[in-house]
Structures are given as structure tokens and as C-alpha cells.
Amino acid sequence: MSGEFLPDYSHMPWNGRYRPLFKLFATERWRYVRKDGAPVECDTAGQAIEAAKECVRRILNPTIYSERTAVVEDVLGVAAWHEQRAARAANDQEAVLGAIVVKGRQVKIERRRRA
């Protein structure tokens, strides 16, 4: 769509009732508010304007749907593999450096015997 975004609302008299109209852009033609493919009709001009505003709100802010899914079991054992890998890396660091590196900082390991 070309033109300046400027939502506008109006109504059109129709057989003693009012049909709500709207346009989203200043250069766009007026469009009817429709429900099930047919133009909506209102009893008053104020109701028609409100129906047009609600229609524009629905267009600009569509309903977002989401779905919860069931928790999937770790059948491949990825979590256990990550834990084993981290333990191996900690053991390797301790053997080589005499300490473990956590978040870029060296943590000294002290071993004490309990009496």
C-alpha cells in the first residue's frame, strides 16, 4: 500500500440504518466493515463509528494463538551427555592447571582429609 498511514472512520446511511466504513491509509478508498462477508449494519451513527474503530483494532492487533505441547523425554540422553562432558572438562582442567576455570576465572581446588 502506498500513502500515509492514517486510519480514518466513517459511516454511511443505508435503509434507515448505518454501515461503518474505515480506511487505513489516507490515499486508500473507504471499505465496509464486514462480518461473514456481508457489510455490518448499526442502529446509530455512533455505533457505526465504534464498529469501524473495533474493526481497525482487530486488523492492527490480531489475536495471537499459542499451544502448549507435552514435555518430550530425553530419549537420546543429550542432557546426560552434556553433564558427562562438563565433568570430563572439569577433570581435564584440574589435572592440567591444578584448578578449574569457571566463567573465565580460575577456581583453586583444595583437598582436605577429614580427621
Keywords:
single chain; 115 residues; 2 domains; two-stranded antiparallel ribbon; 2 helices
Give an account of the 3D structure.
With 115 residues, the protein is of the alpha+beta class. The chain folds into two domains: 5-60, no CATH class; 78-108. It has helices at 45-60, 78-97; strands spanning 5-14, 17-25, 31-32, 34-35, 38-39, 99-102, 105-108. The strands form three sheets. The protein has a three-stranded antiparallel β-sheet. A hairpin with a 2-residue loop joins β1 (5-14) and β2. It is rod-shaped and about 100 Å long.
Main beta sheet, described?
3 strands, antiparallel
Q: What is the strand arrangement across the widest sheet? A: 1-2-3
List the quaternary state of the chains: single chain
* Number of β-strand runs: 7
Silhouette:
rod-shaped
Low-confidence stretches: none
Taken as a percent bin, the fraction of beta residues is: 25-35%
| Count of all domains | 2
How much helical structure, as a percent, in the residues? 25-40%
What is Rg? 33 Å
Average of pLDDT: 86
Strand-pairing-aware structural class:
alpha+beta
Question: What is the H/E order?
Answer: EEEEEHHEE
Annotation field: number of helices: 2
* CA distance, first residue to last residue: 81 Å
